[in-house]
TrEMBL record:
Entry keywords, A to Z: Metal-binding, Nucleus, Zinc, Zinc-finger
Matches recorded under PANTHER family: ZINC FINGER BED DOMAIN-CONTAINING PROTEIN 39 (PTHR46481:SF10), ZINC FINGER BED DOMAIN-CONTAINING PROTEIN 4 (PTHR46481)
Predominant location: nucleus
GO molecular function: protein dimerization activity; zinc ion binding
Protein's name according to its UniProt entry: Putative AC transposase
GO cellular component terms listed in the entry, alphabetical order: nucleus
Localization terms from the record: Nucleus
Length: 501
């Protein structure tokens, strides 16, 4: 709501009823004092929380508002000391420079220094734009392509190559009904006459493929009312029977992509580890659908285009060690999350090497000099101390790493729908009537201390940069007509406060 709301007489009356003794701050106090104080407090809190984190993943995206003002947003994701996944908006500010990779990298670097996190970044998730990928590489950071953006490109490309005419024809009919209350009334009459629900037609948004699916799906549901309404209105450019048949097949084929887009975009828990599995599911589902030899050629071409796009975009993701290790360390998937057993073994060996390094470093740092004994005591214990020293010297870091990993792999998988950071552990034998929530990795960080360290750096990486898009959605709501005079500084403060409370 705009700041002016506190000066609205009806709002004042409402607050008075709730709390008669409360003095509402005026617009100026709210905007200049209270907002700034809360913004500063929240930034300090975020800085402290990030300081206590072991590793941080970032997502970054850009946006242009209705006034053609450019913004960039940067969000941070990490696993806290309680093994809970946390996310914060660090910045959403006006971008006054050319959108070159160098300028974007300088903007990101300033935020790093502001929050003192430049040495903690495990990866950055963004779309596939060349300038932002250059910015990440320029900062010498690891880049991961946003799964949702990549999937959007795959489906949009297949749609544009194979069913563009059908989509355009559908859009024209939808617009025909939406542009006039008279035509829309006719459609509602037909829906009522046929005892159909008054479902509104949807228009697609060019940048979001799933809006095209939603348009076609809603159009297909309203098939009979649409045909009847268009006939009564004398509309000539109607869809032919074969086009309706084609639309039905396309909706069936694209439904799986819509479900996966919705799942991955709404995911608030660990998500990167599931992306390779989801891509294989999509390929398998499409290939199964294409086994029907009676399908129209256009549908066959659409399906083949989808499979090709998925293979090209996602086929090599398991070769990325960040993604591969996130699969391995997710107790829902582990070995079963890999489509290629060789990639599993490569990841297995890479983790052994990392853990071996951890063990060696810790053994060096923890090495202490033996306590000096008196000469008489020394002569008594010399043989025993020598034997113990020899035993300690035979400790093999590689063997210790293998033992830790194999023990982890031998544990039962947790259900796929569970949060991999949380495991419900029954205590019914010790406490008959008590079931306690146990953090899976938190409860095992002493059992698998080295795997736990890597887990903090891998499972914090989200599959998408969707959180940035949600921030921009909020920004669009803030930059409405009632708030058109807000400065970009105020917009940033409002977003930081709103997103991090």
């Amino acid at each position: 709501h705009p700041f002016s709301m506190v000066e609205n007489e009806e709002f004042k009356k409402f607050v008075k009823l709730l709390c008669p003794n409360y003095n509402i701050p005026n617009r100026k106090t709210l905007s200049n004092s209270l907002l700034s104080a809360m913004h500063k407090e929240i930034l300090n809190k975020i800085t402290n929380q990030l300081a206590n984190s072991q590793a941080i993943c970032l997502t970054c995206d850009g946006w242009t508002n209705i006034n053609n003002t450019s913004f960039y947003a940067l969000t941070a994701h990490y696993i806290d000391s309680n093994t809970q996944l946390k996310s914060h908006l660090l910045e959403c500010s006006k971008f006054n420079y050319k959108h070159t990779g160098l300028n974007i990298s300088q903007w990101i670097d300033k935020i790093f220094k502001k929050f003192h996190i430049e040495n903690k970044i495990s990866a950055v998730v963004t779309d596939n734009a060349a300038n932002i990928k250059f910015a990440i590489n320029n900062l010498k950071l690891r880049h991961i392509s946003c799964f949702a953006h990549s999937l959007n490109l795959v489906v949009q490309n297949a749609i544009n190559k194979n069913i563009k005419d059908l989509v355009e024809k559908t859009k024209i009919v939808v617009q025909y009904f939406k542009q006039s209350s008279f035509t829309l009334t006719k459609l509602h009459e037909m829906q009522n006459n046929m005892s159909k629900e008054n479902l509104k037609l949807k228009q697609d948004v060019p940048t979001r493929w799933n809006s095209t699916f939603e348009m076609l799906h809603r159009f297909l549901i309203n098939k009979e009312p649409i045909i009847s309404a268009l006939a009564l209105l004398g509309y000539k450019n109607t869809l032919q029977p074969e086009e309706w048949d084609l639309m039905e097949h396309c909706v069936n084929l694209l439904r799986i992509f819509n479900e996966i887009t919705s799942e991955i975009s709404s995911e608030k828990n660990v998500s990167l580890s599931k992306t390779t599995i989801l891509s294989r599911i999509m390929i398998r589902k499409v290939k199964t659908y294409l086994e029907d030899k009676m399908l129209p050629v256009t549908v066959q071409n659409l399906g083949e285009g989808l499979v090709e796009g998925l293979s090209n975009r996602f086929g090599g993701r398991e070769t990325n060690d960040l993604i591969a290790q996130s699969i391995f360390l997710d107790p829902r998937f582990k070995k079963q999350g890999f489509g290629d057993e060789n990639k599993f073994h490569v990841t297995y060996q890479s983790l052994i090497a990392r853990i071996r390094t951890f063990i060696i470093q810790e053994s060096i740092s923890q090495t202490t000099q033996p306590i000096l004994a008196t000469s008489s005591t020394n002569s008594i214990w010399k043989e025993f101390d020598t034997t113990i020293s020899k035993l300690q010297g035979t400790y093999n870091p590689s063997t210790a790493a293998i033992v830790e990993i194999d023990k982890y792999l031998a544990e039962l998988h947790i259900p796929r729908t569970d949060d991999p950071l949380i495991w419900w552990e029954s205590k019914k034998f010790l406490y008959p009537n008590l079931y306690k929530i146990i953090i899976w990795w938190e409860s095992r960080k002493f059992l698998y201390p080295n795997l736990y360290k890597i887990t903090l750096k891998r499972l914090c990486i989200p599959a998408t940069s969707v959180l940035c898009e949600r921030i921009f959605s909020k920004a669009g709501q803030i930059c409405n007509e009632k708030r058109s005079r807000l400065t970009t500084k105020k917009i940033n403060q409002i977003l930081i406060v709103n997103s991090n409370i």
